[in-house]
Amino acid sequence: MPLVRYRKVVILGYRTVGKTSLAHQFVESEFLEGYDPTVENTYSKIVTLGKDEFHLHLVDTAGQDEYSILPYSFIIGVHGYVLVYSVTSLHRLPVVLVGNKADLSPDREVHEVQGKKLAESWGATFMESSARENQLTQDVFIKVIHEIARVENFYEQESRCYLM
Ligand SMILES: Nc1nc2c(ncn2[C@@H]2O[C@H](COP(=O)(O)OP(=O)(O)OP(=O)(O)O)[C@@H](O)[C@H]2O)c(=O)[nH]1
Ligand SMILES: [Mg+2]
């Protein structure tokens, strides 16, 4: 008897990047031409990989912007995330990848350079931190505020250019 394992995966990303279309294509094998903004939707599919069966529970979310609040169901019991962007738009949310517990140097398994490279490959900002250190912790959240402002300014300037 194959083991059926439950996997809860949350699909995140900005509005209209195609989260629902991807989920729908995966589960129903068809492309959705129309656009119907998602409030929240779930999809289920049994996926067989070799001898293993996975009961995949996909949570299709409403597109996020900088004002979105993620409900608990997007965090609790989640096994993985799919972060989607559209290649047709540069408009992406700022992401700060934080390598925390940097104070625990004897237990370190991830080198700072590895974190940096991963963040670079995502176009994300990277920081190491320690929740034991107030200043380092402040820096994380100040960084994300700066990043949001940077992206906002960029798009404000861009829309001004269009208006001219
Ligand atoms: N050409 C093309 N169009 C796509 C693709 N994915 C999505 N679309 C179209 O883009 C529009 C938005 O797609 P959705 O899947 O609804 O986007 P979403 O990310 O779920 O949007 P929200 O629920 O508002 O966050 C729809 O008109 C889709 O048909 C794609 O890979 N190629
Ligand atoms: Mg959607």
TrEMBL record:
<dbReference type="GO" id="GO:0003924">
    <property type="term" value="F:GTPase activity"/>
</dbReference>
<protein>
    <submittedName>
        <fullName>GTPase RhebL1 isoform X2</fullName>
    </submittedName>
</protein>
<dbReference type="GO" id="GO:0007165">
    <property type="term" value="P:signal transduction"/>
</dbReference>
<dbReference type="Pfam" id="PF00071">
    <property type="entry name" value="Ras"/>
</dbReference>
<keyword id="KW-0342">GTP-binding</keyword>
<dbReference type="GO" id="GO:0016020">
    <property type="term" value="C:membrane"/>
</dbReference>
<dbReference type="InterPro" id="IPR020849">
    <property type="entry name" value="Small_GTPase_Ras-type"/>
</dbReference>
<keyword id="KW-0547">Nucleotide-binding</keyword>
<dbReference type="GO" id="GO:0012505">
    <property type="term" value="C:endomembrane system"/>
</dbReference>
<dbReference type="InterPro" id="IPR027417">
    <property type="entry name" value="P-loop_NTPase"/>
</dbReference>
<dbReference type="InterPro" id="IPR001806">
    <property type="entry name" value="Small_GTPase"/>
</dbReference>
<dbReference type="GO" id="GO:0005525">
    <property type="term" value="F:GTP binding"/>
</dbReference>
